[in-house]
Design brief:
Number of strands: 4
Distance between the termini: 82 Å
Order of helices and strands: HEEEEH
Number of domains: 2
Helix content: 25-40%
Low-confidence stretches: none
Largest sheet: 4 strands, antiparallel
Strand content: 25-35%
Strand order of the largest sheet: 1-2-3-4
Shape: flat
Mean pLDDT: 78
Number of helices: 2
Length: about 110
């Protein structure tokens, strides 16, 4: 009984070792393309609806504003690369329901007793 258990444990150790060696070889010899060499970079994106998005792409020294919807991509605008992205980011507007919910869930102030 113990020899069968020892044999099963040894086989498990061999399988796990082969998996780690395979993963190391995969990383070492370039199984995946290097992300740093990719000239295309997604800078930002905004969801407009269930399937519609506006995406800001960076290619070399150019930014492309692209509309994406149902398998279609349309270039909306082209501009030179900007250093500061924060000026383009717009804070999402709270809907009336979320404002109502935040007021409803807020703790009431304690009443002063005279």
């Amino acid at each position: 009984m113990s020899s069968a258990l020892l044999q099963a444990f040894g086989s498990l150790v061999i399988v796990v070792a082969v998996m780690f060696i395979g993963a190391w070889l995969f990383r070492r010899f370039g199984g995946l393309p290097d992300v740093k060499k990719n000239p295309l970079k997604i800078v930002s994106g905004v969801r407009l609806g269930a399937r519609e998005r506006v995406v800001l792409l960076e290619i070399a020294d150019t930014w492309l504003v692209v509309g994406v919807a149902n398998g279609q991509m349309n270039t909306l605008h082209t501009l030179p690369r900007q250093v500061n992205v924060s000026e383009f980011q717009i804070a999402p507007q709270k809907s009336s329901f979320s404002q109502w919910l935040s007021q409803f869930s807020a703790k009431p102030k304690p009443r002063k007793r005279f």
